[in-house]
Amino acid sequence: MSQKATVIAVVNQKGGTGKTTTCENLGVGLAMEGKKVLMVDNDPQASLTISMGWPKPDELNTTLATLMGKVLEDKPIQPGEGILHHPEGVDLLPASIELAGMEVGLVNAMSREKVLKQVLENSKHTYDFILLDCTPSLGMLTINALAAADSALIPVQAQYLPAKGLEQLLQTISKVRRQINPKLRIEGILMTMTDSRTNFGKEIDTLVRQAYGTKIKVFDQGIPRSVRAAETSAEGKSIFTHDPKGKVAEAYRALTKEVLHSAEKRRKHQLDQLR
Ligand code: ADP
Ligand code: MG
C-alpha cells in the first residue's frame, strides 16, 4: 500500500514568527532522516524561495501561481512541473509576486478553497511530507493551505504574548475543520526565538504552555534566538549546513524528531484500527 504524504501547513497570520525559517529547516531536517520532502512557498513575498537560494523568483518560468492558474482553467499539471531541486535533498515549489494576483482571482472561482489541494494532488504520492509556508494573513491563500493540510504547525514568537492573534487563528482552524477539511489537526505550537536568559522569555513560554498545553500540543522543543538562524535567509542554505553544531541546528533536529515521532504514532494507530 502506498503511503500518502503528510501535509503540514506552517501558519500564523502574524509576520516574523519564524514560519519560513521553520519550513526550511524542518524540511531539510526531515530529508536528513531519509524522508522525501516538498516545500511549497505559499507567500507572494517568496521568502522561502529566496532563502532557499533562488533570489529572483519573478524570473522563474513556473511557480505556484502558474499551477493554481492551470487548476482554475482546468488544464492538467505534469508530474514534477515547476518543482525545483535543492542541493540539501529537498524539493521546492516556488512562489513569485504573481501569487498576490492569484489570491485576488480566487475570490470568484469555483471551489476556491481547494485550488492548492488540487495542485498538490499528484505530489501526494511522491513525497512523505509536504510543508506549506503560509503568508502572514488569514486570507484565501492561507485558507487554501488549511484546506489542503493534514495538520497546522503554529510558530509563536516567544517575545510577545500571542493572546488575541492566536485565538483568531485557532478559530479559523476550527472553522476550516467544520466547513472544509474535517481531518485538519493541529500538529503543535512551536515557541520560536526563545531566550532562556531572560525571565520575560521564560514567562511567556510558561504562559503559553499553561493556557494552551492542555488542549493543544506545544512542542517540548523551542527554537532559540540566534543570529546564526537569521543569517541563513541570505545564504540559500539550511541551518544544518550553515551552523551544524550550533544550538539552532540542534533545536530543529529535535523538532524534526518530535514531528516524526507523532507521524509514526498516528500511522500505528491507523494500522491498529484496520486490524
Ligand atoms: P515569518 O516567515 O513568520 O515571517 P521568518 O522565518 O521569515 O518569519 O523569520 C523572521 C525573521 O527572523 C527573519 O529575518 C529570520 O531570519 C529571523 N529568524 C528566524 N528564526 C530566528 C531565530 N531562531 N533566531 C533569530 N532570528 C530568527
Ligand atoms: Mg515567511
From TrEMBL:
Segments forming domain AAA: 6-186
Record-linked InterPro entries: AAA_dom, DNA_Partitioning_ATPase, P-loop_NTPase
Annotated catalysed reactions: ATP + H2O = ADP + phosphate + H(+)
Superkingdom classification of source: Bacteria
CDD domains to which the protein is assigned, alphabetical: ParAB_family
The family this protein is said to belong to: Belongs to the ParA family.
Stored PANTHER family: COBYRINIC ACID AC-DIAMIDE SYNTHASE, P-LOOP CONTAINING NUCLEOSIDE TRIPHOSPHATE HYDROLASE
Oligomer status and interactors: Dimerizes in the presence of ATP but not ADP; ATP-binding is required for double-stranded (ds)DNA-binding. Interacts with DnaA.
Protein's name in the database: Sporulation initiation inhibitor protein Soj
Native species: Faecalibacterium gallinarum
